[in-house]
Design goal:
single chain; 183 residues; 11 strands
Length: 183
Amino acid sequence: MNLLNKRSIAGFCCCVLLHLSTGHAGELEKKLSPFIGRWTGTSAAFGGFEGTTENGQLNWEVSFRWLPGKKAVQQSWEIQYAETKENFSSGTEILHEDPVSGALSVTGFGMDGDVAWSNQGIASTKPRGYEVELTEQTENGTQSKYTVSRVKRSKDVFVLTIPERSIDGKDYEPIPAIELKIG
C-alpha cells in the first residue's frame, strides 16, 4: 500500500472516530439542554417509597446543570411537604454517557424522609425528553425498581411521571403527571 493510501485510510479512520466520539455527546447536549435551569411545581404527596407518606401537598424544586465539558448533567431536587416543610425527597443524580458501554448511565443518592438511598440506571432519549429505568436500595435494604420520565411540554414547562414502580417486589400505581415550570 502506498503512502498516500495509508494517509487516506488513517485520515478517514480519524474522522470516523471523531464523529463517533462526539456524535452521542452532541445528541446528549441537544436532548438535555432544554432542561438546564431551575424548575418548581406542586403535587399531591404519594407513598410507597420507604420514608415517604401519602399525606398533603408537596413543593418541588428541581435543578439541572451541566458538569464541566457538557458530557454529564447533574440533577438535584428538594421536595418538601408544603404544610410542615419536612423533607419528602432530596437527592442528586448524574446522567452521563458511560465511556465503556456507550449507554446513558445514571447514578444517584439522596434521602426520602429520613431514609438514605442510592440508585443507578440506564436512560434513553425520547421525543422532547428522556426516560430513566432505575434500581434503588435504601440503607434499610428496601429494593425498588422504577421508571421516571421527563418530557418538555413547552419551553417553560416539563412533565415528570413515574409510570412504573415496584418496591420490594410489590407493584404500585403510577404517579400522575407532575408539572414543573422554569423559575
